Amino acid sequence: MGAQLNAYLMSEDARSQANFYAESLGGEIVSLATYGEAPGTPEAMKDKVMHLALKVAGTNMLMMSDSFEPVAGSRSISLALSYDDETEARTAYDKLAQGGENKFPFALQPWGYYGEVVDKFGVTWMITKR
Fold first, then answer.
1. What are the pLDDT digits (tens) for 48-72?
2. How far apart are CA 65 and CA 11, in angstroms?
3. CATH code of residue 119
């Protein structure tokens, strides 16, 4: 018996956030459903994202949805992304940091290259080079 674990991010603007990750990490939106596809949805909610699947940095899947309440970042969860190539890792770190906050500069550590950034949407990323 097995299962697959995917991060599911609540967003104040899922489309913009997904496009930022697709550009920063390489990837594409593979599916997107809006609340307007459900019967009886109020007009003000029709364009909101009900569910979005995003493939990034190879075959990694992120799921996203628009939230109906303010979204705040949390230090209790981080997304860890490990690369085989230092240049790819550094590029991802730099792009995710645009408009965000460098928490820990991407640099060689005793265990390998590591950096931590909080992106402009409040999501914490831990980037490593294996």
1. 999 999 999 999 999 999 998 888 7
2. 6
3. 3.30.720.110
In residues, how long is the chain?
130
Q: Which residues contact 66 (CB under 8 A, 6 or more apart)?
A: 10, 11, 12, 13, 14, 48, 49, 50
pLDDT band of 130, cuts 50, 70, 90? confident
pTM: 0.91
21-37 core/surface letters (b: 16 or more CB in 10 A; e: else)? bbebbebebeebebbee
Structure tokens at 71: 């979204």
Of 60, 106, 111, 110, nearest in space to 87 by CA: 106
Q: Which of 22, 43, 44, 42 is nearest to 32 (CA)?
A: 22
Q: Let me know if residue 72 belongs to a domain.
A: no
Q: Which domain holds residue 13?
A: 7-66
Residue 114 Rama label (left phi>0; alpha psi -120 to 50; beta): beta
Q: Indicate if 60 and 108 belong to the same structural domain.
A: no
CATH number at residue 57: 3.30.720.100
Domain-ending residue, one of 24, 40, 66: 66
